[in-house]
User: What shape does this take?
Amino acid sequence: MQKKFILLQGRGNLCVGIIALLLLVATSSFAQNAIKGKVSAKDGESLVGVNVAIKGTTRGTNSDADGNYKLDVNSGATLVFSYIGYLTKEVVVGSQSTINVVLDVNDKTLNEIVVVGYGSQTKKEVTGAVQTITAKEIKDIPVSQITQKLQGQVAGVQINQTTGKPGQGMSVRIRGQLSVSAGSEPLYVVDGFPITGSIGAINPDEIEDISILKDASSTSLYGSRAANGVVLITTKRGKSGQTNVSFTSFVGIQKVPERGRIKMLNAEEFAQFKKEYYEDAGQAVPVEFQNPSQYRDKNNDWYGALLRTAPIQSYNLSLTSNKERVNTAVVAGYFQQDGVVLNNTYKRYSVRLNTDYSISDKVKIGFNLAPQYVFDNTPRTDGDRGTGILFNALHTWPIMPIYDANGDLTKFNQLPGSTGNIFAYPNWVRAANELVNETRNINVLTNAYLQYEPIKGLVLKSTFNAELLNSKFFFFNPSTATSAINVPIPTTAVSIRQSTDNLTWLNENLITYTKSVKDHNFEILGGFTNQRFRQESTRVQADTYADDRLPTIQGALNVNRGGTTNGVNEWALSSFLSRLTYNYKGKYLFTAAIRSDGSSRFGANNRWGTFPSASLGWLVSDEEFMKNFSKISFAKVRASYGVIGNNNIGNYTSYALVNNTVNGVFGNTVATGAVVTSLANPNLGWETTKQIDLGLDLGLINDRIQFVYDFYTKRTTNLLYSVQIAQEAGFTNFNDNIGEIKFWGHEFALTTRNTTGRLKWTTNANISFNRNKVVALADGIDRVYGTFHITQVGQPFGQFYGMQKIGLYKNAEDVKNSPIIPGRSAPGTIKFADLNGDGVITNGGDKDDRTIIGNPFPKFTYGITNNLQYGDWDFSIVGSGSQGNQLLVRHLYSTANLDGVFNLVEGVKYRWRSEANPGKGVFGTTVGGGNYTGIERDWMSSHFIQDASFFTIKNITLGYNINRPNKFFRSARVYASAQQVYVFTKYTGGPNPETSAQGDGNGDGGNLSQGIDLSNYPVPRTFTLGVNLNF
Amino acid sequence: MKKIIISAFLLSFGLASCKESFLTVVPETALSSATFFSKEADFVQAVNAAYVPLRAIYNDRHWILAEMHSDNTYYARNILFGAVDGTENVADFAIPTASGVTANDNVLQHYRLDYQIIARTNQVLALIDKVDFNADSKNNLKGQALYLRAFAYFQLVQLFGKVPMHLTPVATREEAASPLATTEQLYAQIEKDALEASKLLFNKSKQEAGRVTSGTAKTLLANLYLIQKKWSNAEAVAKDVVTNDGYKLMPDYNDAFTTTTGNKNNAESVFEVQYMEGSAGYNGNFIYRIVPTPITAAELQPITGTSNPQSLSGENNNIPTPDVIAAYEAGDKRKDISIGYVTLSQSLRDNKVYPYIKKFARAHSLHNNTGQNIPVYRYSEVLLFLAEALNEQGKTAEAAPYLNQVRTRAGLAATTATSQADMREAIFKERRVELAFENKRWFDLVRTGRAKAVITAYGAKVKANPQDYYFPKGAVPPPNAFTVLDDYYGLPAVESALTPHF
Assistant: This one.
């Protein structure tokens, strides 16, 4: 030993350290006993992966596939056995070397803590409609956003991925809530702080659990922001007595499946179409189309050219520790998702540090700090013909070459006007590759609190929260590319820089007092809060660059005056809140809550709104008479009523504003001009929703079957609406609170533990039926038309509206004997139903034949998750679906334009060409020009509407768990996961039936016009391999 | 004690900021109307903005409803391009109209733009007397507002006959829709406003170039009186302009029209809508809306003179008809100034030569961005107003010199008309060519009661020889062409849905 030591001494301090460590290990091992044992359930079944920890240390292990564990323990130490679904058990180590443990099933998962607004309750006590999802349940889903992970998991919540853009495009609707023009997204509250930024940017690995508050009694403490529902997010904290270090990672590839892509004509088919077009019209065929077969091997799939197979990766390192007086959690993450569209990258670097410290038994302080940096470069993929390159690529003639003879990307393509080519197309691949459209966000969420408990049960708590966002947007369109049609190359290079700073702060001061007197249990909450948001932005637009390599502002020859602006947006909110929770013997439950909100957004005559709620619960299963029903292990009935609001009405909507940039010109001189642009409304207020919820929670056969049912009905009144007024007034709209919408629905959620032996199989299923009906609009207005929609009293919101297509005119006889559009109907043109029976088909006006032709809202949505565990293996499959909703296939306006101005969908091959060759009856004749084809193309009709019901296998994961600790880790898990595995749908309008753009992209926006498929960024299928290591 | 200190500390945080001023957050990046109209400069700006809708009216809409809806210009089919029904219907006299209402978008947009002028001027007129500032300046501002309001109603009454009338700003939702005023009520209000404006406004010599003047107001009055057949009133105001306001004809007809930067508000100009070339958004692009297509960049360049011509394909609006071309007498210098020809290699017609309106095609620098002004009233029209007013009162000989001033400049001999009837025809015909493509023709047909007869005859010619009217071989006008020959357009359907009054 002495000799060895000398030998090693020369190697320096590092070796000394190692030896010291070895000695330490050796020393400590002498004093320990090797304990082994088996962990099993009451029925003798061995439990796999049970966490066995030595209390007060970082050391521990997990039980193996046979339930056995082995650990070196000092005598007198305490072993803690914990396992999901079972009650945690502690055993003090004596002199024994074998400790077998039997864990009791925690069949009353009802003692789980549920985070609710401004506090927490046990699941048993909850009287509102609240659903909680823990991070564990959704940990393997390889996506960037927490809302993506929730798809299909929550009853009553429709979560759609409307675009495949990394980090974007999730639409979350709780209980079908809608507003005409105020937002419909729920309020997101992170560790008690209602955030103003995007929930999509938060690293899902930081999240411990999520509570979704659905009814008015659970949300009313959020008052004027609660009407769309509230999502409470709780981030990670250390678990009692444990220290955990873990590393999680997944890597994978993403690809847009061929199936589901829109089937377009290829180059040869397109040329053939054009050839037939001229032949059928009796015109000379332009030389370009005389020989379609020349394009046989020269197809240009412009849409496909924009797509690629792209990698995705995620790494997270976390430490949680809860010892003595300090509870700390740190999560550091890196996520990168390259988009499946060229030149699209999303990266997120994030850190979260949560610390709580108990200064004494009475005083506690805490800090959360979560900075993150997000980089995102996304080509302008989404949008219609004006803006979106994907939409444009679909349209581009496939005979136009992507590459020139030298193999270089073409600049732009235009054929002679004689071919009917009226749009010069840029090369979309260049547009994707060369345009810069990047955002860099630095976002910091931070909280600090001081909590004081002067006497037992009375807690005073002050919190300070701040959210900072610095967002830098940079757009550069070099002279060599463009994403607009009819712009020759070289074009004028343009840069846009926008810098936005947001600061939100919130101070909350709360008092809670908890007291039990005999069987009466009370909790009283009171508080007041102030929140303020301010956003400042600066935008600079410059153009005409001497050199594309230097897109600085000073490098531009021109700073665009109109595009150079700054903005300020601000709001303030003061609130008082109070809640009383009471129960008798834990089985008769009552909660009443109230919040009063004063908001700067409301008109001067209407500053404060009050939002009360009350709820009742009865634990029927705790009653004596229920003892006879042994199969019923748990039963609770719930009822609640409350009033909540939506204050997303814009910050300055109640003011009349003057725009002083409506300038006149006199001679060659510009003279400043000013215009009053809006009408003031000092009475403007929030939207009010009154909601009733009735619920039933049931547990059968020792809670192996758990069932939750809710019925809700709610009425939203005072909807913010920019009421169109006669423009003879000189204004287009008046911002007012009008109308009433009724919503109602049923939600069913079922959890079953199908098998509990060596093979454990659980199923979670949910289904939701949401309905709405417009009860009233403004006085004297019973309908509001959009470009494609109608919102009408007595009908559901925002229905598709237009002509009812019944086929094509078969021949001259048919035209003669049928109702027609005078001067425009001909053999082979589209035939609509003459609904008013006047013999003339009319679009609009007094003799309108339009009707409701579709509904963008589903009849029901559903989700089903199956988890299987067998030994060290586990398997899960998550599905999510929607039934009965329709989409407007917007691209058909161009891709079924029979004038052949754009490339066409494949179905046009089977159009009507003559009485003898009538095709499949879907697409009409090309003959006669716009007077005839324009009807099919331009008149909104059922021609464009498709059923978009779908069932998507969102995720399949196969995992293998190693629960035997070794020198590298304590436990490990490896898994393979596939995301967006398969979409079952009959929808052919595009690859993503979940999409629902609002508006036609031409200013007809908002919730009144949902369900439009603008051929957005497709959602890729992703295959990943992941590993989770615990140290 | 410690308990109390900590508790008080916690409580004090929130209460400190809990007051009403915390909740008053006013917009920082826009002015509020509550405080805006407080000084002279505010009214100057408000008046300036009242001119702005005229740019869109004249560049985008007025010519569709007032010129292409006549026998002067037509809509040439480009079957390579899908139809734009609304515009096509106007040229075809086939606007679907039911119960006095039409869904035609040109009608709607023109209507709305005129009411923007009216709302902006009402705002000025309601508030200007509540603020004290220099009387001359105030009068001149009031005069401009009154003129612009009168002119907007004048356009509306000519297009629609009856429209709602607003003379004060709308402040609430309930005030938005007004009952229809009769043609007579509208005429009376226009007369009142224009008369007052003519007294308040500066004369052209004193007025900033490009703004309306007392002469502009009097010309509007003359125009109104002619429509009302108040011949002596018309004579008086027109003569007032001729005698007192210092206008004169430009020696060359070509110079009566501005270039993209020059010749603006010249001696002949009574009022013209002002544009400015450049990227700031004050430009027009009229010629790009009316040049025949499909046209290649090379074919377009001689017409526009730009450095970056681009090919165009679209509808072919406002193409001079064979009828208007034939209306020019031999030797009329105005013919070649007003109308040019271009050969479109990509046209599907056998005859690939198309006429276009040359007097509004002036060289400019960049594609689709022109600065030339569009005339509203020129002095030559004042002369023709005067001649017409005189002749209608039987003062035919007195009328002739005014007509001849216009003819002489055009390189034509004096009129041979001596009878009242001949003189009436001579003036009518002179107006057609002198003011060709200046959006006068349809209103002339209506006010002289000739619309039905002239358009019926014109329609018959189009139907008989579609190819002369730019139809490709085999194509014909739609069956409902030349069936809607009413003097007035139907009111816009979209607005009809927003008012209980029509």
